[in-house]
Amino acid sequence: MRQSGETAGSAIQEDDQTADTGEQPVNTNKRNFQKELDALIQNIPEGTVPSLFLHSCCAPCSSYVLEYLSNYFRITDYYYNPNIQPQEEYRRRTQELSRLIRQQPHRYPVTFVEGPYEPEKFFEAVRGLEDIPEGGERCFACYELRMRESARLAGEGGFDYFTTTLSISPLKNAAKINEIGERLSEQYGVKHLPSDFKKKNGYKRSVELSAEYGLYRQDYCGCVFSRRERDERNKNT
């Protein structure tokens, strides 16, 4: 994402990042996942605080999601993003998320966990899809890679729910993200928390929080393919 002075009207590029990509926001949802989440929260038994294993893609996107969900859940925030290149960029994004969690107030505890940096797993997951434009099947494979590892660990750890911050992006397919989450829920025996975090001004709030905390905002998804597309766009402007 760009630096925090960016306007709230910008859209988030594939892996969570705000960028002017020329793409149109995804609008493929028939289900209202935000309403489903509202109903789930309303039905949390009084006096209980469920545990949530949350996959985070970056600090700016996580800012609103953590502010929102930490009112209802004890969160373990898992940073697992083997798609990000180069490693210096990965490290910078990791540090920003860790800093945000330390500085942001939360009603219930938020614990930060950094996963392994495994770029070879990303390249294996998207093999044969390298030339697919952003927002297509390559991105879906990337979503699933990160969500699968999160679901696996959530199931092994006995968490009540798992989910991802990815749906906060206006350019991400929330229906696909939830479809993947529900399939992994069955496979790993942990409930998937439905999400479309861009709703209820969630994306706008994430931009405000990014400015408030001075978060580093990238201008490409993080993978080498989105970086290549960014460089091509910059050549033509």
How is this structure best described in words?
The protein is α/β, with parallel strands linked by helices and 237 residues long. The protein has one domain (12-235): HUPs (Rossmann fold). The protein is built from eight helices and seven strands. The strands form two sheets. The chain has a five-stranded parallel sheet with strand order 5-4-3-6-7, with helices on both faces. Helix 3 (87-103) links the parallel strand 4 (74-79) and strand 5. Helix 2 (59-69) runs parallel beside helix 3, helix 2 (59-69) crosses helix 7 and helix 5 packs parallel to helix 6. The protein is globular and about 55 Å long. The protein starts with 11 loop residues before the first strand and ends with a helix. The relative contact order is 0.24. Residues 1-29 have low confidence and may be disordered.
